Amino acid sequence: MVDETRVHSARRYNYWLGGKDNFAVDRESGDLIAKNFPTIRITAVENRGFLRRAVTHLAAEAGVRQFLDIGTGLPTANNTHEVAQRIAPDARIVYVDNDPMVLVHARALLTSTPEGRTAYIEADLRDPGKILADPALREVLDLRQPVAVMLIAVLHFIEDTGEAARIVRTLLDALPSGSFVAISNGTADFADEQTRARFAALMARGQLDAFVRTADEVGVLVEGLEVLEPGIVPVSEWRADEEPGPRPTPAEVAVYGVVARKS
Ligand SMILES: C[S@@+](CC[C@H](N)C(=O)[O-])C[C@H]1O[C@@H](n2cnc3c(N)ncnc32)[C@H](O)[C@@H]1O
Fold first, then answer.
1. Which of 258, 177, 194, 254 is nearest to 221 (CA)?
2. What is the mean pLDDT of residues 99-124?
3. What is the tens place of the pLDDT at every residue in 58-76?
4. Cα 186 to Cα 141: distance, rounded to the nearest angstrom
5. Fold of 9-261
6. What keywords sit in the KW lines (predicted)?
7. Probe ligand 1: pick from 157, 183, 256, max atoms within 8 Å of CB?
């Protein structure tokens, strides 16, 4: 059921990215957060840039042909399958989100090349076993071959870092060596005191549901994996040499990105 009276993170993010698939309640929440963190639109755009560059690297340099994109969001420019299949038309992508609004728009995610495949599953990241066992996933992905798990701007909805790390581990445990995980997660590491206080107040009032993590906490999520260069850095700085300048500051972006490989 699509509920127009409750804020949905997918629709609010769509609003920040300049999309049209959102309701008044999402725009109000988006504006309130933007009032307290005026660079939130830069954050959203830079996060999408990281997704694009990470998929590009994984498909072009690492040779990955299978992607499991959990917390997909509403379709927008440069969805995972579009980026991957531009490089490798035979790439296979499974999308997962728990927001029924994303399901309504899933057709736009299913525009695979004839050589590749895409599928969409409505499921919750908190139950990774169920995602892995889903017949639609099994039909599209061969879990004996490497898979890149994309967890972009979704783990920060899971407050407990231990639980988030267990989810990442469960997913990677089901995949062969040579698989990858790409993660982005909001951070307050670069925020000044006033920004931290404004965030804490929004959280306390239940007006914000994204839990920020320090670089060390993001490190816990990829423990035991081989972290690719340049490590855990603001998403805007992850292999961004070819992005047009001027680049935003880490404080404006406030999201860490990391890509790691299972050896
Ligand atoms: C901020 S958007 C990120 C979209 C996309 N990954 C990106 O980075 O551009 C977060 C998405 O995660 C989804 N989401 C949040 N919690 C989830 C959960 N527990 N299971 C599955 N999806 C979830 C939301 O519905 C939303 O579509």
1. 258
2. 93
3. 999 999 999 999 999 999 9
4. 29
5. Rossmann fold (3.40.50)
6. Methyltransferase, Transferase
7. 157
47 lines ligand 1 (CB under 6 A): yes
Ligand 1 binding pocket includes 17 (Cβ within 6 Å): no
Report DSSP state, residue 237: G
Output the six-digit token pair for 131. Answer: 């995602």
pLDDT reading at 1 higher than 90:
no
CA 215 to chain centre: 17
Give the span between the Cα atoms of 75 and 82, in whole angstroms: 11
- DSSP per position, 31-70: HHHHHHSTTHHHHHHHHHHHHHHHHHIIIIIS---EEEEE
* Ligand 1 neighbourhood includes 120 CB (under 6 angstroms): no
Instruction: Render the burial of 137-148: b for 16+ CB within 10 Å, e for the rest.
Output: beebbeeeebbb
